[in-house]
Amino acid sequence: MITIGPYAFRWDDPLVLAIAAGVAALVLFLWLILRAAGKSATMAEPLMREMGWMASRVQALSDGQERLSGGLQHVSEAQTVSQSAMMRLMEQRLMEVQRGMTESLQGTSVRTARSLGDLQQRLEAIDKAQANIEKLSGNVLNLQDILSNKQARGAFGEIQLNDIVVKALPADAYTMQATLSNGKRADCLIHLPNPPGPIVIDAKFPLEAYEALRRAKTATEVEQAARQLRLAVKTHIKAISEKYIIEGETADGALMFLPSEAVYAELHANHPEVVREGFAARVWIVSPTTCMATLNTMRAVLKDARMREQAGAIRRELGELYKDVERLGERVGNLDRHFGQAAKDIEEIKVSSDKAARRARRLDNFDFEELGANDPAPIIGPQAAE
Predict the structure, then answer these.
(1) Half-sphere exposure at residue 85, Cβ-oriented, CA atoms within 13 angstroms
(2) Which of helix, strand or coil describes residue 245?
(3) Which 8-state DSSP code applies to residue 176?
(4) Domain-by-domain residue ranges, the chain?
């Protein structure tokens, strides 16, 4: 290592090698000159010129070395200042990044906590919905079990019919599971007045045919399922017409209750001939909605009939009310006469009271002369007795 001022150079530094090579060349050159000096004196002058040139080159090399040393020192100082500025800038940037990361982490923590809370609420809602779905699935399975059995399906229709009738009519206007004179049991018998008379409502549910129609894919399957549905409904219409329309006992018609709006809509939309056949057999097909409307109409008929039944009683009550009003008028007249007589008696009492008051004042003032002159008193004695 070679140290020049505050700078240190290695031996293998190109600059050091260049300087060392120059010095070695200079020494060799001087040695050659000195060796040749003894041979010829005439060569001294060129040698001196060469020596002067070499000295100037060495001086220039020394000046360049000094300038290089100054430049290296300036570069070192500038590098130190730059490193300090860079360190400060890096520290500021690191502080800003750290502050930003801290704020971001805090915001992320708050958002994460809020999201976890929302997620917990959604999970609770999903759990509740899952429980409801499981319960509904169980109910659907139970309903499927009910609808797959004809007896259970019939009971289902009767229960739905019972709920509608109970909501629409008073308790004494119908009888559930009523037995007719022919021994047939009707699901519901509405006690309408004559005409039209008691009318039967029977619940029917042709589910198998309707389900086959829904499952049909090809035109042949659709036609076969539709034929099966029409046949099932026509069979029910015929059975109701034969069992529940009894002349002199029931109305001249009956109602077939379908506990499915879908089946009712299918019949009226795509099988109107079945509906017309029901009309011809005096069996009217109703759904839950139309059954409620029909029962409300029947309730109005029942109300009107009961009003007519009570019309005689109402007229009798009105006659008694008229008699009561007449007696009340007579008694008011008597009371008015009593009040008139009482008023007259009170007026006479007031006159007598005024006279008594005047006499009392005169007696109090010992005004006997005025008393005798104005109001001579009767003389009571033997002469008066004569």
Answers:
(1) 6
(2) coil
(3) E
(4) 2-103, 152-309, 315-374
